[in-house]
Design goal:
Its cofactor is pyridoxal 5'-phosphate. Its EC number is 2.4.1.1. This is Alpha-1,4 glucan phosphorylase. 49% of the residues lie in helices and 15% in strands. By secondary structure, it is α/β, with parallel strands linked by helices. The chain folds into 3 domains: 89 residues, no CATH class; 380 residues, Rossmann fold (3-Layer(aba) Sandwich); 244 residues, 3-Layer(aba) Sandwich (Rossmann fold). Helix 29 crosses helix 30. The two termini are 35 Å apart. 49% of the residues are buried. The structure holds ligand Z2T.
Length: 830
């Protein structure tokens, strides 16, 4: 009786939206099994069931997509166009079912068909078209946009291979191609009617008009075809279905015609290969700029396709009247990767629509807004002017013109100050002339934002200081968020159900409602239920760990989790040094007082990032040793889970007790994993960096373990000449640990294999202050250890963490973008 009621309340928010019954779903799935998959109930394996189920869900999705597009067209709505080189979508089945309100019914329907929905969903490959935080943020944002009934379209690249699949061989990372579409992607729809032709290379001809005007004509040397694939984005409640439009490159028939006629059939095939290379593979570097020609072509290719698409749609409603363009279209640049869209729009307006510069600039500078995601100098994009000249000769001219006019403005504001001009110029006059895409983005946009309070302050103060004086108010903050539909409702069903029982089922769209849970933070029964769910999630993860690595974890251990890209600034090696400290303390004193703890890592290193790969290797070697050392392995375990990705995050996050967020202060722009873990009741051990600061404000200092240098202290330490040897020479423990790495203790017979980690922290100068923060970190960990032993106290802290995460829904982020930057109005569908 009670059970039936709970099921009802869990689906009541959406039940009225679809009259679809469980039997309808069964019929649809079986129909697709027969008619789309050409198999039957007896022969079908999980993969066939998965495809049939997707097809059945997609029918529902497409109906809503049609009504959404009709509503947007009829209302001629202003829309945001989210330009991003990355969309890290993960799997779509569970998400779409939850957002349509069909999850429970489909689960039952499949059970009656004799298959388990959870197993079937495991068949879906992740859509890993992104590196990490930036790409996942884009995915959360388009979920929120659809949920809030906002007209929006995501534009990106249809990579044939997403982020590489990571395998661990003898402790080392090896990269394998990701082939997410090998057996077809049931969610995407090809739209050949919207193909675009994109010019590249060639030269610019200057023409003089009869009234003395100068016209420029770009004669491209090559043309590629952009083929759009649409992925429907289902809002929670299933009303609005927006699209993510991803462009695939193909050889243009038009271009190859000449070669073909000249008898160059084989040469024409070579052209095909080149054109099709553009969308072949996602660059696997997060936060480093490779400066490769193909990468610039990727960026231009998807921006040019998307702009043509937007303009075609605008013209359908407004003809050649450009006056309302900036009222109808806003384009958000997700970092500088799509910044080339700025000169591309100006080129279209000036060269193609025949506008004068002033009118074109007026439109383009009211169309673009730019989000900055990092302060790390190695991630700030700069393109050699020579490369732009070769690939996009007209765009380089336009960039020079933008800069020329901007320099006049700077001269007006700071007459005669050449130092400021050098700093603000789009052109960096180094030995090789470089184009600074960050400066171009700030100059060409009407709004610029950072992604957490502290990050936005540093963007203003350190990255673009004089820009703030030129355009007060243009630089602002929008703190990142995460979608609670994927990162709580879908990934942690037991906790979601418990929450709904206590505070109702409105929290997925009104996350501040979670604060109602604080009323039960001291309620014994609730604490027990909350921690039982955590325990069950740990049991489930332990089973997964056993299958993936062979390591056995006791779910009574503290599950301490660090999951994120591998980067020196994120300091996985600080975590590792602390693990080594615990190991050493346990060897010196078998009764060393600590609650048993399992340290779990998930991280991919950029394939060319040597030290990052060395750190993965070191973690694995230390893990091997500790896990097999019977003197300590009842108290200490270390696990490196291979191939960290969205679907693995969904299994790890609900099982975490402790969340490691330990970047050097000032380096992590925001972080979003920090929000996901805290939302699922993990306590943060973290620095005063990125959104950790805002998480600490929300949960209160007694419910988080903050440690380490502040941004100001970091700056001072660097300015005063930091010498890591001072710490090494004065700390017995640190010295012993670092020296240990050089022995063959962890790599029997191969001393020195882990030496690069030590080297980077001593002769390498320890640029991320690992040693400087070590003692504070170790102390914070000890506090966490003591706190965990107080069962009720810990349960209270965990509950408060979940209860106070309301601020971090991506719905709040999107509302801020809408009110302060995009100025959109919702368009209700049906
Ligand atoms: C990325 O994931 C992030 C920043 C980048 O700067 C590039 C990539 Cl691939 C160019 C991350 C930040 O490191 C992280 O702090 C932030 O939360 C995330 O973007 C989303 O804003």
């Amino acid at each position: 009786m009670k059970k039936a009621k709970q099921t009802n309340s869990a689906t009541s928010a959406t039940a009225s939206l679809n009259g679809l019954s469980k039997d309808d779903i069964k019929q649809a799935i079986v129909r697709h099994l027969h008619c789309s998959m050409g198999t039957d109930e007896n022969k079908a394996n999980d993969h066939a069931w998965w495809k049939a189920a997707c097809a059945a869900v997609q029918e529902q999705v497409l109906e809503r997509l049609r009504s959404t597009q009709k509503a947007h067209y009829m209302n001629d709505t202003r829309a945001v166009h989210y330009f991003s080189a990355e969309f890290l979508m993960g799997r779509l089945m569970s998400n779409n079912l939850h957002n349509l309100g069909l999850y429970e019914k489909t689960h039952q329907a499949m059970r009656e068909l004799g298959v388990d929905l959870t197993d079937v969903m495991e068949q879906e490959p992740d859509m890993a078209l992104g590196n990490g935080g930036l790409g996942r943020l884009a995915a959360c944002f388009i979920d929120s946009l659809a949920t809030l009934d906002l007209p929006a379209i995501g534009y990106g690249l249809h990579y044939e291979h997403g982020l590489f699949r990571q395998e661990i061989r003898s402790g080392a990372q090896i990269e394998r191609p990701d082939s997410w579409r090998d057996y077809g992607n049931p969610w995407e729809i090809c739209r050949p009617e919207s193909i675009q032709e994109i010019p590249l290379y060639g030269y610019v001809e200057t023409k003089y008009g009869d009234k003395g005007q100068i016209n420029k004509e770009w004669h491209p040397g090559s043309i590629v075809k952009g083929v759009p694939w649409d992925i429907p984005v289902v809002g929670y409640g299933g009303k609005t279905v927006n699209v993510l439009r991803l462009w695939e490159s193909q050889a243009s028939d038009y271009f190859n015609w000449d070669v073909f006629n000249a008898g160059g059939y084989v040469d024409a095939q070579r052209e095909n290969v080149q054109a099709e290379t553009i969308s072949k593979v996602l660059y696997p570097n997060d936060e480093t700029e490779a400066g490769k020609e193909l990468r610039l072509i990727q960026q231009y290719f998807f921006c040019a396709c998307s702009l043509k698409d937007i303009i075609r749609r605008y013209k359908r409603a407004h003809g050649d009247d450009w006056s309302r363009f900036a009222d109808q279209v806003v384009i958000q640049l997700n970092d500088t990767h799509p910044a080339i869209a700025i000169p591309e729009l100006i080129r279209i307006l000036v060269d193609r629509a025949g506008m004068d510069w002033g009118a074109a600039w007026e439109i383009s500078s009211k169309t673009f807004a730019y989000t900055n995601h990092t302060l790390l100098p190695e991630a700030l994009e700069k393109w050699p002017a020579r490369m732009l000249e070769k690939i996009l000769p007209r765009h380089l001219e336009i960039i020079y013109e933008i800069n020329h006019r901007f320099m006049r403005k700077v001269e007006e504001k700071w007459p005669g100050d050449d130092a400021i001009k050098r700093k603000l110029s789009i052109i960096e006059e180094s030995s090789e002339k470089m184009i600074r895409m960050g400066n171009l983005s700030v100059i060409g946009s009407f709004a610029v934002n950072g992604v957490a309070e502290i990050h936005s302050r540093l963007v203003k103060e350190n990255l673009f200081p004089e820009f703030e004086k030129l355009w007060p108010g243009k630089l602002t903050n929008v703190t990142n968020g995460i979608t609670p539909r994927r990162w709580l409702k879908a990934c942690n069903p037991a906790l979601s159900k418990l929450i709904s029982e206590r505070i109702g089922d409105k929290w997925p769209t009104e996350l501040y409602k979670l604060q109602g849970l604080a009323n039960f933070a001291d309620d014994k029964e609730f604490q027990q239920q909350f921690m039982q769910i955590k325990h069950d999630n740990k049991v489930r993860l332990a089973a997964e760990v056993k299958t993936l690595t062979g390591v056995e974890l006791d779910p009574n251990m503290i599950f301490d989790i660090q999951i994120k890209r591998l980067h020196e600034y994120k300091r996985q090696h600080l975590n590792l040094l602390h693990i080594l400290a615990l190991y050493r303390r346990l060897l010196e004193d078998p009764d060393y007082d600590m609650h048993p703890r399992a340290f779990l890592f998930g991280a991919k290193a950029a394939p060319g990032y040597k030290l990052a790969k060395d750190i993965i290797y070191a973690i694995n070697k230390v893990a091997d040793k500790i896990n097999n050392d019977v003197r300590v392995n009842h108290k200490l375990k270390v696990v490196f889970l291979p191939n960290y990705r969205v679907s693995l995050a969904e299994k790890m996050i609900p099982a975490a007790d402790i969340s490691e967020q330990i970047s050097t202060a000032g380096k992590e722009a925001s972080g979003t994993g920090n929000m996901k873990l805290s939302l699922n009741g993990a306590l943060t051990v973290g620095t005063l960096d990125g959104a950790n600061i805002e998480i600490a404000e929300e949960v209160g200092e007694e419910n988080i373990f903050i440690f380490g240098l502040t941004v100001e202290q970091v700056q001072k330490l660097h300015a005063g000449g930091y010498n890591p040897y001072d710490i090494y020479d004065n700390s017995r423990e640190i010295k012993a640990i670092l020296d240990w790495l050089e022995t063959d203790y962890f790599t029997p017979g191969k001393p020195g294999e882990l030496a690069s980690v030590k080297q980077s922290l001593l002769d390498g100068g320890d640029p991320y202050l690992v040693l400087a923060d070590f003692d504070a970190y170790s102390e914070a960990q000890q506090k966490a250890d003591r706190a965990y032993r107080d069962k009720a106290g810990w349960a209270r802290k965990a509950i408060i963490n979940t209860a106070r995460m309301g601020k971090f829904t991506s719905d709040r982020s999107i509302r801020e973008y809408v009110e302060r930057i995009w100025r959109l109005t919702p368009c209700h569908v049906e």
